[in-house]
Fold each of these.
Amino acid sequence: MHKGKGMKFVGDSRVSAERKSQIPKDYSEYPGRTEAFWPNFLLKEWLAGSVFLVGFLSLTLAHPSPLEGVADPTNAAYIPLPDWYFLFLYELLKYEFASGPYVIFGILVIPGLAFGALLLAPFLDNGPGRRPHQRPIAVIMMILALASTIWLTYTSAEHVDWETRAEQNKPIPESDVEIDTSHEGYAIYEENCMTCHGGELEGSPAGAPLIGTEHSAEEIATIARDGIGSMPADQFTGSDEELEQLVDFITSVIEQAE
Amino acid sequence: MLQKIYDWIDERIDITPIWRDIADHEVPEHVNPAHHFSAFVYCFGGLTFFVVVIQILSGMFLTMYYVPDIENAWKSVYYLQTEVAHGQIVRGMHHWGASVVIVMLLLHTLRVFFQGAYKKPRELNWMVGVLIFFVMLGLGFTGYLLPWDNKAYFATQVGLEIAEQVPFIGEYLKTLLAGDAEIVGAQTLTRFFAIHVFFLPAALFGLMAAHFILIRRQGISGPL
């Protein structure tokens, strides 16, 4: 930095009036084939960035981000599951030595030691050698930690049926349908179907939403008698005339919702 | 014209040294994939930053529609997902970016670890990096609740129950995060929103600034 007598400033500021060179440094004397970051290297780097971005956007387009039904604290049947990068900590708590009376080990001691060691790695592994074979203990510890994390994540995720989970927890759009309770089919619906399919045909954990279904009126009639998927047969046990009224009611609500 | 504007600004606030600090630095041969293809492992850190930028931008756009309130949070996300033009893509970028950033951070950490690049004099930068990793996990945990669907609600409840089991401070910790000793509800959602959108990003920016200043000062570690 220039200092001493003879310094000139811009106005009454502390900015030097002498302009410095704007020519980038010359890296030709550096060892090896050193390049300037700006603009030489950046011109290549953005290509790598673009390839990455294309891959990332393809992932985004191919798999829309999931959204389940709105949070329902009274839903006792829901099996909670954290995001995948917390699964290993979640799975750890299922081991006997890390749960119940030993839960402190599961939530504090083991993760604390592992992440503490990660934070303090430069001080635990403080020899001069950088190559992996010059510091076998650090490298082996890291490989063990990595292997157990992968193993815990795998065992936690393995028995989860992701597709069924997604299917069962689909978001149910808010319906603004008005239920015509004076419809002759309504009483039949109320008696036979409402427990599972909901008061506004919006569905529940026990039964799929009827609104938005792609089944035709005849198919709905068959399903009411014979069941479909996890819906058992004989949910409806009335006369054919009643069935007709029921289907008429259901299709009228579906049409109204469209 | 541009040069004149630059000179006009430079005369007043002397930006050339700042510009030099940011852009004018060397890229040594051993980190340049153009010379040694295996040097692509040095891209992980930069790609992590790239994904963080995606997260910041997509997150900023998400807050234009998102309402942090238990009545409307899920509805606003559902609306964004189904009605808003490109809403599904922006939310998809934020959702997948959250996973990709963890993967890239992990790869970057492993590269630094197995090369022993954290050894003297770079101990401090390693610690800053591990703190960034923790902040990122915190962002993942708090962001998971925000859509207010069943998955979010019950995972957060489990997370808070785990926090409660910490000896001595557990109950205070849970109350601090959830806003109530018992209820996971409106208070929890606003707190997680504030943590996700203000507190943790502030910590993240500070740590990232420190991370980059240290890299610039110390240079990239030499070849093995």
Amino acid sequence: MTVLGLIFANSENPLGELTNKRTKSAVPFGGRYRQIDFTLSNFSNSGIRRIGIISRSNYQSLMAHIGSGEEWDLELQEGGLEFISPYSMGNYGVSGNVEALNFALDYLKYGGNEDYIIMAGANVLCNINLAKVLQAHIASGKDITIVTKSGLADGVKKQELAVKLDEDGQVIDMAVDYPAPADYAISTGIYVVSKDILRHRVQEAAARSLYNFHRDIVLRLYQAGQMTVNAYQFGGVALYNTSVAEYFQNSMAILDKDVRHDLFTGNHPIFTKVRDRVPSYYGENCEIDNCTVADGCFLEGKVRHSVLFRQVSVAEGAEVEDCVIMNDTVVGENCYLKNVILDKNVTVRPGTKLIGTPSCPIVIKRGDTV
Amino acid sequence: MYFQKKRCIAMLLAGGQGSRLKVLTENTAKPAVPFGGKYRIIDFPLSNCVNSGIDTVGILTQYQPLELNEYIGNGQPWGLNKTHCCAQVLPPYARSKKSEWYKGTANAIYQNIPFIERFDPEYVLILSGDHIYKMDYAAMINFHAASGADCTIAVRDVPLEEASRFGIMNTNPDGTIYEFEEKPKQPKSTNASMGIYVFNWKVLREFLMADEADPNSENDFGKNIIPNLLNSGHKLVAYTFEGYWKDVGTIDSLWEANMELLGKDPAFNIRGGPNSTIYARNNAMPSSYIDEEAKTVNCFVAEGSEVYGTVRHSILSTGCYVGKNAIVEDSVVMPGTVIESDAIVRHAILGENSKVCRGAVVGGAFGPNEKKKISVTSKGAVVEANAVLQPGDML
């Protein structure tokens, strides 16, 4: 069975300053990665060899990051990666997933002879074997499979798509944009569907100016009894970055051993663009507690409960607590930082104090000096 | 196939056994021995080539080439996998008339004359795969071209008392070499050869052919080719290199070179310098994790490691684990090695994927003037729980 992967690189819920100049899937995460690395690696590790990336806007840094796809073993003679951008779709802007899919139909039609499509977003971070999901989809005999995650709905946060499952895991209710209660499983944004069904349903919806994939295709057809829905209950860690506060909280979540090992350890590595940085250097007087540290850092100060990306330097006398510090950022002497997200290439002048809160961390824009 | 003419190509001698590295080179060629947390020794000459604009490198392998071949692959990590840039692994091969191993360094180049000829180079740079240094070969090649010499040999000034351990180039005031002495008992000068040569290819080719025809030759650059060039009146000049350079051919020197990376102002600054990135094959490893109870003092920690204990004045390579209350001091921990809780490792080199089980003790502490005995574990070795590996012992 051959499978085509489709990645929606843009999504609603931008991450404030972090998505000012980059598409959400290009937002750095976890010390070494961009959000899209998880989706790309899941596809690559599952043997999917042709992948379309649907990106609407601000995709320069995404394209720079992905390049030829070499790092994900996706630089191939046949297949590989293709960007499906608004320009190549013959339009200057795309308002909904269905419209984007409709424009991508040519790619689906002429590209290859895959039987199935696996669609995924780039803002739910997990390490999942999609080959197993495909097998389960085929075995279920249903029209579409939604990969779901239980235990995350709280009755407050609006979920893009939530389903209620019976004891046998069968879908008995579905809701879209709904603050689903705790007994609902929520979508991970990963869907498996046959190419024929997808093409047919997308054309049909687009012809009626229906643009929301979840509401106008999955929910509408499910309720009308025209589409059978299978749920694949994913048991691993799934981190949803739909707001800056969630991004911050999920960044800290990888300090937990179980979360970290679930995401990164094992036979399915998460690949990312290689940067030839030296190993990180820990100075004579540094104190590093409960941190993840990428390569190339130069640490002389105190850092607690934080995520340090590549080539970060923390000078002597500086104290950093509960922070996310991205590539090439410099924290000067005697600074005090708590609950701060420092984007790439930020310079924090000696003696600066910045204090945010966990639910409202201070975000310093890429390249700024504070 | 179309080959671009090259001004200079490099031939990297990577076939040596490195027997003085003992258990570390039991199953690995010396150039593939890990260094500095995420590198292998061969990354240094290879990266120097790339940083010097040399984009065609022949890598001569012979001893235990499996890991080295796998590591070099198609040369992609160094950007040497393009149409006109290559890192070509050159093992000895069977021929129609006679087949043989590389008999010596000169014979290794001789057997690969057809490879070199394809690029029709003016100059050939001969390198070895067992030194740690950053050097701009382009400056040396330009120096060679300007000098009008047939061969330029890189030298460094060594203390007189150590000179008898090296191949010494005795030079005239204008830098021309009049004599080469291998490990002289009474050295006349302190210009030690670094094993880096630039030759005019036409001249080298002629001497390689003559050397091959001489049944008494050892087919070695230092013993045969250089003396023969001198004796026949060719111009050889010395090129003085002043940066850091270290032969890591012994356990002690390999340990020392790793230790010399440490400190705020290290003897060898692996981070510093424009256009001097050392490239390496990267594995997809996550960031390292440093636990609340961990202590990391004056050390390098490469990606993918987890530290729960103490690491002081040491190199912790990619994908290592240091358990709770474990202590690692003055040591080189090679990739994938596990040091369990309560274990103590001092003055040691732990080979790749080796394991020091709970409560075991490897190596010892030494006074400032005492000779340090380095304990070594081989690749995949296991020091059992509560066992002791004495200072200087190998497993």
